[in-house]
């Protein structure tokens, strides 16, 4: 490389102390030639008149008259090869960025600058300048050598003319030789299409300027060797120009390259193995194929040089801090972007790289499957992978390996589809250890090793042949072979056992794991009677006097309602194969409460907030209820009733009106609808009504009504043409059932079923009809939410696809910008080589057009960013709606689970007792069985019998009372 002392630094600033400071800094770093100017105009004159060559021109932005960016723009014509740096204050930052985009400057640095950073930037510009200067020097040297080669070629041409006559005599021999060459090509499967050097190299290496130069010179060296061999065989003089005279493809004009390109393509075939891998090794960092799994966004950004190690660490700390404060939904990419460590265009390029890595990991599995089938060669795969990388480097788009292989006619499209369809993309499962408890007979039955069923112990038995010995190796080898890794006893203990052992059936534990601990579930203790209270006194007419119910549950404000005994956490164990022994979760319990109750801070105690009736509903919620009284009917005068506590109606719930409450007490329900979280108690009857109670229902008679209860249903007189589903029991010991559909889960007693004239009743014994009906209602509500969620998820996926497409658009635009920047750099170089003012003028015009294209690209990217922001707003809205619906679904699922668990935790007692008579045509149902009474039955008991045999079905058994 040329001596650096001949190239200087030009510093332009209207403040002399800045120049002095810059001069001192540069001299300390070994820069000797430092020229300064106090204005842009003075700097222009220096460039016009001085003989000095500057590798770097540094200018302040804010100067009187011509500012720094204008000066540096003019300096392009006077010193086109110089690197240009702008020094700017914060207020001038926009001007600096604009100058960078226009190509007027290569770097800008802000005031006040960091001295270390300044020197680092100057060294970078020095390296770039010297690299270009060295290539220019080598190009000139090559031109001189080419002139000599031309002279040699001209003399050679004259010599060839002398032997033209001899060529005619050799035509037949040449034809034979041509045929031999053709045969050799066919034998060597020489089937490449002449596409030109660059296209051919693209199959093997990543195409960029440095790599193409290296490949070109390898080919040049090979061509020299070929021509040298030809010359020696024909006893012709040949002058080797030497491998040190490197030239760059960039130094060749277009016409010369078009001549050389196809001429040396055959040589590329011979050196392809040497070309493979050029450019595969990065200067620093991690290569694409170093990744064994998809990297995190931050890690990839650091590995590819978008952020520093300190920025990566700081971003992770910010993310951790934000997440600890509140679940904010932040991700590392947003943190790095907000902190200013990343540009938005960098964000898109990183996402594009992640897509490439993800596809490449899967494509490596795909490639291995093709290699295993022996349908491709390693060379085919390497070429395809290189082409995939070239395509990404060129456009930011990831193409699948299979598509590239199909396009190159290496495999058929059908084969690609078949292999991709059968590709296994799951991790291999853990090694099957199902035989770990069997006896092993390795080493000629010298040692037997057995593993306990829970895999926490392994023991050995040794035959008499090795009693008294001290050789532990067979035992250690067997332990290792069986995969035992954890809790292995020391060798000295094993040695002592086999030395002292006298009984071949004696067992010795060689490995001991850690058993799991099951823990204990939480317990809830209630300080009030949670059972249904007395139904009241039945009057002679069958109505119920609820004023005589015995002692009711009652609690005062501040008294304890319930307490919780915390669960003991289970502890997982570890088996002798060093695998975690999972334990089932111990069921926790939570004190849940409604109105009138308060939970302590530690969640272990419930206290009454008001004086009233304590109740435990079917969901396990404890409430203390006060009472609301309606003095008359629930009708137009009162309207519908909605009250969280108990309701007392001193009349009837009339047709078309409803009551929603905890517990309801009323005279009768005539056409009304009732929903209660507690009991429903009706003195007289229920007619044309629908009752849903989470507690029990008690009434005198039921006619043409629907009753659903979690607890018991008590009817003292007739049940007519009604539907009653309960998860408790039915008590109808003093009445009769006609033309009705009854389902109960617990043992029930009735007096009479049917009459001579009535339609046969349907009785379902010990079934889950009630809870299934209840769950169906929940499922319907849940399904409605799920339908809404599917629509929102579909909308979000559309927005997400649009957002990802916009990322790809940004990546494509930035890759296109890179190409334009390279053209700008090449045009700047051509300006310095221009042979005439007109040529220089045309090149400057071309440079301006390229700068306009860069501006247009920036505008396109900004527009894409705006669309991304709009799309992200839509995605955020969808995510909020999805979260809201998810919470609603989870709430419904939780409520449904509470109801069903409370019912199904209690086993059914499928039995029906009839104290008087059951008329024929009565239908009795179990879960899987049906019994139709063909005759009248007297006092009877019907039971559902579940057989012990797995292949036998349940049956309904009849017993006389």
Structure commentary:
Helix 2 (40-49) packs parallel to helix 3, helix 9 (209-233) crosses helix 11 (265-275) and helix 15 (344-373) crosses helix 22 (769-833). The strands form 8 sheets. A 10-stranded mixed beta sheet has the order 21-23-25-28-31-34-36-38-40-41, covered by helices on one side. An 8-stranded parallel beta barrel has the order 24-26-29-32-35-33-30-27. Strands 2-1-3-4-5 form a 5-stranded parallel beta sheet, sandwiched between helices. The protein contains 23 helices and 43 strands. A hairpin with a 5-residue loop joins strand 16 (597-599) and strand 17. The protein is of the alpha/beta class and 961 residues long.
Instruction: Please give the oligomerization state of what you see.
Output: single chain
Strand content: 15-25%
Number of helices: 23
| Cα distance spanning the termini | 116 Å
Cross-sheet strand order for the largest sheet: 21-23-25-28-31-34-36-38-40-41
Rg, nearest Å: 46 Å
Shape: elongated
Low-confidence stretches: 184-196, 280-284, 425-445, 546-551
Total beta strand runs:
43
Instruction: Supply the helix-strand structural class.
Output: alpha/beta
> Main β-sheet: number of strands, strand sense, barrel status?
10 strands, mixed
Mean model confidence by pLDDT: 79
Helix content: 40-55%
Write the layout of secondary structure elements.
Elements lengths: L6 E6 L3 H13 L5 E4 L2 H10 L3 E8 L7 H11 L4 E6 L4 H10 L4 E4 L4 H48 L1 H6 L1 H17 L9 H5 L7 H25 L20 H10 L1 H11 L21 H7 L5 H17 L6 H7 L5 H30 L4 H18 L5 H7 L5 H10 L19 H4 L2 E4 L5 E5 L11 H9 L9 H10 L7 E5 L10 E4 L10 E2 L5 E2 L14 E6 L7 E2 L5 E2 L10 E2 L3 E3 L5 E4 L4 E4 L4 E5 L1 E4 L10 E2 L3 E8 L4 E4 L2 E7 L2 E4 L3 E3 L2 E3 L2 E4 L3 E3 L1 E3 L2 E4 L3 E3 L3 E2 L2 E4 L3 E9 L2 E4 L3 E6 L8 E4 L3 H65 L3 H68 L6 E8 L4 E3 L4 E3 L7 E6 L9 E6 L1
Parallel strand pairs: 1-2, 1-3, 3-4, 4-5, 15-19, 20-22, 21-23, 22-24, 23-25, 24-26, 24-27, 25-28, 26-29, 27-30, 28-31, 29-32, 30-33, 31-34, 32-35, 33-35, 34-36, 35-37, 36-38, 37-39, 38-40
Antiparallel strand pairs: 6-7, 7-8, 9-12, 10-11, 12-17, 13-14, 16-17, 18-19, 39-42, 40-41, 42-43
């Amino acid at each position: 490389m040329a001596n650096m002392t001949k190239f200087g630094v030009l510093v332009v600033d209207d403040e002399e102390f800045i120049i002095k400071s810059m001069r001192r800094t540069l001299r300390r770093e070994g820069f000797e030639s430092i020229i300064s100017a106090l204005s842009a105009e003075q700097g222009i004159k220096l460039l016009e008149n001085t003989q000095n060559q500057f590798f770097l021109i540094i200018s302040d932005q804010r100067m009187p008259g011509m500012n720094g960016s204008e000066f540096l723009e003019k300096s392009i014509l006077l010193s086109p090869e110089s690197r240009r740096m702008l020094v700017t204050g914060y207020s001038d930052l926009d001007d600096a960025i604009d100058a960078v985009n226009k190509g007027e400057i290569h770097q800008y640095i802000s005031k006040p600058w960091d001295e270390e950073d300044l020197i680092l930037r100057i060294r970078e510009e020095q390296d770039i300048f010297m690299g270009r200067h060295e290539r220019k020097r080598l190009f000139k040297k090559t031109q001189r050598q080419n002139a000599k080669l031309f002279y040699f070629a001209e003399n050679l041409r004259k010599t060839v003319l002398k032997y033209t006559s001899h060529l005619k005599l050799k035509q037949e021999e040449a034809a034979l030789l041509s045929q031999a060459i053709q045969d050799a090509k066919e034998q060597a499967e020489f089937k490449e299409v002449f596409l030109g050097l660059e296209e051919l190299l693209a199959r093997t290496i990543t195409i960029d300027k440095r790599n193409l130069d290296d490949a070109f010179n390898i080919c040049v060296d090979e061509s020299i060797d070929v021509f040298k061999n030809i010359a020696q065989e024909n006893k012709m003089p040949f002058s080797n120009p030497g491998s040190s005279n490197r030239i760059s493809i960039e130094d060749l004009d277009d016409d010369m390259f078009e001549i050389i390109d196809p001429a040396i393509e055959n040589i590329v075939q011979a050196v392809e193995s040497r070309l493979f891998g050029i450019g595969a090794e990065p200067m620093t960092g991690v290569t694409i194929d170093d990744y064994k799994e998809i990297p995190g966004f931050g890690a990839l950004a650091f590995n590819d040089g978008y952020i520093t190690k300190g920025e990566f660490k700081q971003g992770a700390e910010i993310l951790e801090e934000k997440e600890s404060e509140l679940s904010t939904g932040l991700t590392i990419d947003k943190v790095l972007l907000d902190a200013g460590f990343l540009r938005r265009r960098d964000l898109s390029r990183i996402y594009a790289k992640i897509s490439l890595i993800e596809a490449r990991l899967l494509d490596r599995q795909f490639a291995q499957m093709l290699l295993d089938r022996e349908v491709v060669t390693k060379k085919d795969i390497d070429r395809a992978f290189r082409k995939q990388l070239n395509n990404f480097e060129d456009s930011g788009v990831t193409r699948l390996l299979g598509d590239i292989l199909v396009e190159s006619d290496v495999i058929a499209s059908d084969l690609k589809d078949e292999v991709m369809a059968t590709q296994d993309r799951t991790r291999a499962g853990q090694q099957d250890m199902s035989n770990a408890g069997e006896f092993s007979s390795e080493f000629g039955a010298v040692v037997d090793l057995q593993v306990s069923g829970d895999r926490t112990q392994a023991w050995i038995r040794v035959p008499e042949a090795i009693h008294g010995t001290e050789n532990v190796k067979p035992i250690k080898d067997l332990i290792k072979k069986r995969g035992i890794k954890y809790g292995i006893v020391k060798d000295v203990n094993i040695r002592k056992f086999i030395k002292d052992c006298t009984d071949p059936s004696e067992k010795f534990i060689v490995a001991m794991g850690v058993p799991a601990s099951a823990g204990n579930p939480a317990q809830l203790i209630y300080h009030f009677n949670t059972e249904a209270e007395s139904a009241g006194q039945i009057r002679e007419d069958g109505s119920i006097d609820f004023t005589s119910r015995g002692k009711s549950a009652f609690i005062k404000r501040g008294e304890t309602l319930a307490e919780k005994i915390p669960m003991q956490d289970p502890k997982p164990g570890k088996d002798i194969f060093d695998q975690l022994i999972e334990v089932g979760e111990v069921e926790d319990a939570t004190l849940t409460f409604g109105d009138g109750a308060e939970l302590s801070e530690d969640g272990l105690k419930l206290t009454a907030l008001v004086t009233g009736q304590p109740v435990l509903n079917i969901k396990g919620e404890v409430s203390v209820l006060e009472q609301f009284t309606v003095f008359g009917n629930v009708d137009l005068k009162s309207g519908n009733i909605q009250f969280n506590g108990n309701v007392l109606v001193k009349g009837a719930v009339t047709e078309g009106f409803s009551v929603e409450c905890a517990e309801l007490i009323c005279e009768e329900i005539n056409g009304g609808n009732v929903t209660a979280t507690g009991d429903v108690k009706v003195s007289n009857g229920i007619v044309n009504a629908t009752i849903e109670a989470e507690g029990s229902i008690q009434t005198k008679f039921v006619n043409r009504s629907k009753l659903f209860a979690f607890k018991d249903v008590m009817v003292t007189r007739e049940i007519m043409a009604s539907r009653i589903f309960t998860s408790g029991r039915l008590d109808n010991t003093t009445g009769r059932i006609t033309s009705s559909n009854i389902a109960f889960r617990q043992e029930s007693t009735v007096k009479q079923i049917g009459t001579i004239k009535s339609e046969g009743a349907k009785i379902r014994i010990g079934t889950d009809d009630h809870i299934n009906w209840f769950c169906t209602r929940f499922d319907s509500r849940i399904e409605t939410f799920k339908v809404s969620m599917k629509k929102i998820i579909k909308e979000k996926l559309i927005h997400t696809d649009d957002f990802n497409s916009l990322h790809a658009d940004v990546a494509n635009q930035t890759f296109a910008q890179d190409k334009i920047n390279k053209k700008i750099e090449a045009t700047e170089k051509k300006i310095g080589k221009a042979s005439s003012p007109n040529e220089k003028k045309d090149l400057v015009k071309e440079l301006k057009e390229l700068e306009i294209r860069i501006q247009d690209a920036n505008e396109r990217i900004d527009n894409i960013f705006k669309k991304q922001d709009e799309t992200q707003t839509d995605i955020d809205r969808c995510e909020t709606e999805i979260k809201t619906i998810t919470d609603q679904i989870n709430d419904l699922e939780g409520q449904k689970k509470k109801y069903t668990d409370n019912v199904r935790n209690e086993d059914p007692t499928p039995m029906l007792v009839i104290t008087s008579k059951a008329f024929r045509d009565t239908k009795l149902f179990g879960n899987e069985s049906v019994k139709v009474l063909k005759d009248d039955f007297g006092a009877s008991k019907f039971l559902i019998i579940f057989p012990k045999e797995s292949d036998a079905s349940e049956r309904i058994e009849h017993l006389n009372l």
